[in-house]
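Q: What residues go here?
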């Protein structure tokens, strides 16, 4: 299996590591650390050195409660970084839901659109061009994610009951709609949206039953890195304290390994070096 993108046909016969590059002041884990073009590009280079197979560049935080960012501000953050990142020799993904941002970064040579809205977002005028921006491109990859409601409300009113059938149905229909516009199946990756409108128990259910999502016939991306669900499960019961995002390395590695064991093709992570090391050990065990 492979993932067709703008410039690269990504071999998915072994798991791939997508390194997170947040050009934001307010991301839940590393907001402000890479907020300038220079700092972001330095981080891109560091992640590649650590073994990242793909870079995922984002200019707007989609953490629970995050306020929307204007189109102009997102373009100002993302475009200068993407313009240089596409010269670094690895696939470049851009984490955005705005059609104009998608178009501009694809024009610069970006390889993948990674959209938490699964191309559903509407602007104030009710226009939705995201699907057609992707469909008009001859080969870019796209990752379609399931999100319940939207960032400002998704954790205020999370989903109820068994979420897997809903998530699976949504992702299948989104992928089918895109194929109906001429997008080849090999260009599509699916993401169940860990932490996006689900409870802690529901997130872990999606991991435990990940094989059922794979039955849809598309590769899966798993985004567990430093998520709050991991903090809740690893808190000291007697202290009632949750781990801060930067303290969630061990549970993030455990979740990434489990996701790969359950069939995920790509893991999206902050801690690239450590994740690469874990996956090398897992591969050695499998080979033996």
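A:
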């Amino acid at each position: 299996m492979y993932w067709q993108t703008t410039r690269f046909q990504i071999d998915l016969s072994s798991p791939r590591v997508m390194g997170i590059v947040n050009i934001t002041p307010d991301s839940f884990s590393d907001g402000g650390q890479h907020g300038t073009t220079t700092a972001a590009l330095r981080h891109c280079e560091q992640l590649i050195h650590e073994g990242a197979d793909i870079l995922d560049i984002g200019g707007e935080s989609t953490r629970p409660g995050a306020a929307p960012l204007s189109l102009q501000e997102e373009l100002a953050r993302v475009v200068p970084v993407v313009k240089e990142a596409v010269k670094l020799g690895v696939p470049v993904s851009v984490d955005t839901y705005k059609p104009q941002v998608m178009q501009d970064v694809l024009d610069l040579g970006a390889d993948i659109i990674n959209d938490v809205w699964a191309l559903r977002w509407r602007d104030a005028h009710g226009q939705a061009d995201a699907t057609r921006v992707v469909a008009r491109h001859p080969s870019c990859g796209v990752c379609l994610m399931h999100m319940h409601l939207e960032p400002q409300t998704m954790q205020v009113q999370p989903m109820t009951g068994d979420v897997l059938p809903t998530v699976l149905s949504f992702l299948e229909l989104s992928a089918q709609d895109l194929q109906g516009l001429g997008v080849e199946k090999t260009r599509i990756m699916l993401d169940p949206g860990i932490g996006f409108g689900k409870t802690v128990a529901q997130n872990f259910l999606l991991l435990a039953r990940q094989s059922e999502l794979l039955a849809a016939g598309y590769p899966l991306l798993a985004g567990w890195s430093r998520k709050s669900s991991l903090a809740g499960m690893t808190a000291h019961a007697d202290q009632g304290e949750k781990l801060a995002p930067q303290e969630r390395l061990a549970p993030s590695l455990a979740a990434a390994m489990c996701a790969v064991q359950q069939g995920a093709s790509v893991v999206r992570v902050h801690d690239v070096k450590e994740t690469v090391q874990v996956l090398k050990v897992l591969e050695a065990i499998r080979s033996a």
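A: Context that may help when evaluating the design: The beta strands are 2-4, 9-11, 16-22, 54-58, 92-95, 112-115, 141-145, 188-191, 221-222, 266-269. The CA atoms of residues 35 and 95 lie 15 Å apart.
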